[in-house]
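Async update (no meeting this week)

Hi team, since we skipped the sync, here's where things stand on the single-chain job. The sequence we agreed to prioritize is pasted below, unchanged from the tracker. I ran it this morning and attached the output directly underneath so nobody has to dig for it. Comments welcome in thread, and please keep replies under the output.
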Amino acid sequence: MFSITAVTPEVHQANEDFRSANDFSYCSRYYTCWRIVPYAAPQIGAGESQMSLAIDQIAVGCIGLLHTVFAAGELYQWGSPKILLKVLQKWKLEQLSGPERKLMAMIVHNAGVYNGIVGAALFATLWCGATARPVQLTLLAGGIVAGFVGSVTLSKATIVQAIAGATAIILVLTRSS
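Output:
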């Protein structure tokens, strides 16, 4: 791995520490100077694992997985998604006409795409580390709002989504403080 740093040419010229024998520096005449230095990974001591997952990040991963499962239920069987069938049965609306059912399926597919995006974004924040905490909090807060709205408009069971998101937010906030 390498560490890449960008500075202005003036800083590069003024800072002798910027250039060393074990790095590669490139400066364009008027633009940015780039310094590429081989990166040595920190040594792992006895009894330490190479990767440790904190409980807050496990919770974020679980919420990402939950959204991915929602997306699959909202997208699978294109003409009649699994979640749509459950909602129609609960509301006793199985007798909808073909065009009405198709319209409802398109709405559910749209929600599935959004859930897939949220799930993927939560997984991406795990990859980015602590710098992505504000994004994690924003996505989790959106999931909480969606859970509350869903509990009012669709099914009381979607309150579980809000509770899971709130739990993950509390874990992320306590970890980052």
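Quick observations from my side:
The chain has a mean pLDDT of 76.
Strands lie at 2-7, 24-27, 33-38.
Reply here if anything looks off.
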